[in-house]
Automatic annotation (TrEMBL):
Pfam families: TauE (PF01925). This is Probable membrane transporter protein. Keywords: Cell membrane, Membrane, Transmembrane, Transmembrane helix, Transport. The chain crosses the membrane at residues 38-60, 72-91, 97-117, 124-143, 163-182, 189-209, 221-239. It is a multi-pass membrane protein. It comes from Streptodolium elevatio.
Amino acid sequence: MTAGVELALAVGAVAAAAVVQGGTGAGFGLISAPLLALIDRSFVPGPVLALTVVICGVGAWREREALVVRDLRGAAVASVPGMVVGVWALSALDATPIALVTGVVIGAAVIAAWCGVRIPATPAALSCAGGLSGFLGTLIAAPGPPVSLVYRPPAAPRLRANLSAYFAVTSVVALALLAATGRFGRADAVHAAVLLPAGLAGAAIGGRLGSRLTGRTVGQAVLGVAFASAVVVTAKAVAA
């Protein structure tokens, strides 16, 4: 595969992921990270997290009137120790079995949600989801599933605004930890900068589409994205 083909595929993956993120408030890391890892491992986790900061930050600003900081404040705080463990796991553990278990657990949780099982969005549940989200964010650049499965308010703007803000803020912390341990540098920043225009264009398209969606539709879309990500992560782990 030539460098030009790899870049074109990466641009397409980022744009598609940003469309979903802009419309639902989740999905950027879930979609882009597994696809970019298949194209070139150097795209993850650092460049994806850097893109997440900008794209989700733009989404949160666009929906700022619906933002309720207290909704995911506890999850954000709990994500920090999860990130620390994730950074340690990057160097100390084999990522393949971790990815396999993660994919299976997320897939099972989505199926349970589709069957009517719902995890109450209590402070404890959101904190647990935040911790797991932080771990997955630094390990595989896909922090979305845990928090997305627990936090599902009925109003679509509130869902998009708070998830976008959560992913933007926690990705900043994750990037800082990666940089402090030498896992995010100039080359990662260049990769992110090259792909950023495609991400912003996709986010703009997704934002326009999202304004036409109901809360239920957005919630189901988030579940669908989480399940698709679980399938991709599991398949990749099995094939490794």
